[in-house]
Amino acid sequence: MSLVNYLVLSGILFSIGSIAVLTRRNAIVAFMGVELMLNAANLTLVTFGRLHGDLQGQVIAFFVMVVAAAEVVIGLAIIVSIFRTRGSASIDDANLLKS
Amino acid sequence: MDTLNLAWLLIAIPLVSSAVLLLLGRASDAWGHWLGVLASAASAVLAIVILVQLLGLGADDRVANVHLFDWITAGDLTVSAGLLVDPLSVTFALLITFVGTLIHIYAVAYMSHDADRRRFFAYLNLFIAAMLVLVLADSYALLFLGWEGVGLASYLLIGFWNQNTEYAVAAKKAFIMNRVGDMGMLVAMMAMFATFGAVDFETVFGAASGAGQGAMTLIGLMLVLAACGKSAQFPLQAWLGDAMAGPTPVSALIHAATMVTAGVYLIVRSGPIFEHTPTAQLVAAIIGAITLLFGAIVGCAKDDVKKVLAASTMSQIGYMMLAAGLGPIGYAFAIFHLITHGFFKAGMFLGAGSVMHGMGDEVNMRGFGNLSKYMKVTWITFMAGWLAIIGIPPFSGFWSKDKIIETAFVGEGWQPWVFGTVAMVGAGITAFYMSRLFFMTFHGKARWNDGKNDLPGPERHPHESPALMTVPMIVLAVGAIALGGVLSIGDTFVSWLEPVTGHVEHHEPVLSVPVITVTTIVLVLIGAFLAWRQYAASAVPVTPPTGTVLTRAARVDLYQDAVNEGVFMRPGQHLTRTLVYADTAVVDGAVNGLGSGTLGWGERLRRLQNGFVRSYAAVMLIGVIGALVVVLASRV
What we know:
heterodimer, A: 3 helices, 78% helix, B: mainly alpha, two-stranded antiparallel sheet
């Protein structure tokens, strides 16, 4: 099976993830979209690692997972605190940084 | 050379007197006019002393440079203020101070009813001082100071009765038209500095032969332009008629001794420059010839006695300009005519003032007539001026004008025939309009209301003017009768001017001299006879007849004002309007457009910063996709 299929799958996943981020109003769902995009990226990295026959791709994918885990912790904390103060998890309500 | 070093006093005396009168203000009202007369007279005495001193020297020693002080030191340019005392400048100084003093004396009586008489005398003194600076200067820069000084003084004097808007406008017109000429003077001075690195007469004249033809022609033409402005020559003559708005003594001073003679002085003084530029010389002669006919034609149609005299001045200065344009052979005659003209024209202006004095400030000649019965002295002195200007021998004007006509016939090719004929025909027309003026004013039937006849208009009681007015007129009339003849004996005047104008070999005119003289006199007699038949022997209509096309054109100065308005004023106005429009529409539009454009774009860009996470994400995505497309497209 050609490795290109993995890249195509990764592209599809990334698109789904980005559509989720752009269209869903719920912060949790948007977050899931972000996770999906990150994993799509990881899949690409691993595939390229395989193509080149070395481990660089896998290593970078591990880094991404670490960063993603940290991001999820902080992101969820922010979402929870926003939900507590404003009673909503909609990301469109949180535009206070505008001017 | 002691007295020559005192030449600066000539200028200083009237200048100080003018300053005193202006600074003291009303405090000097009671005696201010006498101070003015005294200052002018003191200058005249000093001028005579200097003349005597010069006459005592040999012909070659009669040129003295009196250094006063270093005036301008700027970079390479050093201009020292110095006076050039030579036969030419002393001649002018004498004319200015002598005729000027007579006019001052006359003005004491003429202006006696004016509340601002003291101020008037302050301006007169300023005029005299400025004119003396002009003629005594030893460099073009100092000459220019006097040049502008007479411009200022004439502005103040023409607009002396500036409570009348029309008079104020006349003063402004004279001032502005003179500035046009002054541009010529400035350009000439700049060209001189560029060519010779100096503007004093000595250096410039000394280096003139080594300069290029182009530069000399530029300088020459610009000097002619300057002379045109100051001397009211074509096409800058329109101000002179309007300048009659000033009090009559001013007209006499402007026309006879100062201001308008400055142009002729400039050309003659710049002789060494003109020697090297035949083009400019020819232009000067052509302008002289045009103006001489122009003024004469205008003079035939005017009914305002002072405007006829003004047109006549224009025409006579045209003669001088023509002579000056003929080169060294004409210089001495130009100045000769200038001197004799100074006397008879001043006399006639004062006579006209005397008539106005007796007739309640009336200037329309159609309202005069038969005044010879009431104003004997004015009549006789005016007659002297009249006979002199039309060139009846042996009156002054005959000697000087005949010489110019003779000189105009000297030369080669077409020039002598054209210039000579114009000068000769001009003499005939001059005889006609001056006789017209004389007969309409002093002869024929009275056309004014004396209380007994039933003519319309206010009642007039013409009477002879006081002695303060008549004595100057008598002195000037003596000059008009005898001066020309006396100075002609043995070519006294011409040889007196030789140190300046250079010795000129006698040239034969294309026609023989007796033929020219006799033809001219015949033309003059015909002109005078026609005027006598029409304006003395037959009745003169009180309301001017419609007249021919030419008469109507001459009444409005041959449409000179209309031409100026159409050619210079209107396009200028349109130009400025266009510029103003361009300024508001294009320049302001661009600046304001830039401002509002930035504002609008800011407004639009501000909307992008909406704080919505998803829209930022979309922008990022679009950006990434865009970047990818670019990268991939460049790979293909």
